[in-house]
Amino acid sequence: MYNPQLNRHGELTHLLTTEGLxxxxxxxxxxxxxxxxxxxxxxxxxxxxxxGKSVFNLFFENSTRTRTTFExxxxxxxxDVFNLNINASSTSKGETLLDTIANLMAMQADxxxxxxxxxxxxxxxxxxxxxxxxxxxxxxxxxxHPTQALLDMYTIRHFKKSFSDLTVAIVGDVLHSRVARSxxxxxxxLGVAEVRAIGPLTLLPSGLDQMGVKTFTRMEDGLRxxxxxxxxxxxxxxxRGALLPSSHEYFKHYGLTEKKLAFxxxxxxxxxxGPMNRGVEIESAVADGPHSVILNQxxxxxxxxxxxxxxxAGASA
Length: 317
Ligand code: CP
Description:
Elements: H1 23-36, E1 54-59, H2 65-76, E2 80-84, H3 97-105, E3 111-116, H4 121-128, E4 134-140, H5 146-160, E5 167-171, H6 178-189, E6 194-198, E7 213-216, H7 219-222, E8 228-231, H8 247-254, H9 258-261, E9 269-271, H10 284-287, H11 294-314
Parallel strand pairs: 1-2, 1-3, 3-4, 5-6, 5-8, 6-7, 8-9
């Protein structure tokens, strides 16, 4: 089946979504990332793999973690990194996305890292770039956030060693979450035993069962014996109409507290892609507690993004 992320040799040339990515490619990215992790402890945290290459960060939506770790990752690969200031760019004068891309390709761009509020924007760009130019999706609308999913998979594998026996619970605003969607595809491809989604019915999309996900509306049921809990932010900016009574009420039923955490396994991992809303989806005692690997996720994100950039740049044109 045609996959716009793979070239005719089956190599990863763009990273747009985890949906449909073969297991061996996911595993190759995680294995490659593990070779970059030790670099962080070295005095000189650089390798020359992307020397002479130009990476353009195009963030049409705000970001702290993704934009910064992509910049660190590209710098550690010895690339030249350019962060386009979208607010000061000619997009505000009516230039189209594809004209912006064409102009940046005229400046010899090699890799575009794209975050956009419109689902599908990185796919559109990937269709129009030259064969030797690579596109990495850094989050598009509510559709996909593949590098977040990959760094989540890296974190799970690091702490749990294998995927096959795990029960992973994804909690909260699954409806609006590109992270949830990308994680569900990655977790099922990597063969976890059970993926669960927990939330109020208004925030659980239809079709989860077809994706192999069990749904729960009560934390007590969905968290029972979970090995990994992935908490999601309430994406108020993507909600149309009142889907929830109040954030106070939401916290009461779906906020992760130490009391609710006790339903999970004693060695459960607590994850969150960030940004976190303390007191809305998670209490500080849990976010900063012994089960939390939230900051480990951020750190592993650098190595995972190095892996993705080095792999796509190595794909033949
Ligand atoms: N997880 C994530 O995408 O965070 P940022 O919005 O800060 O990049």
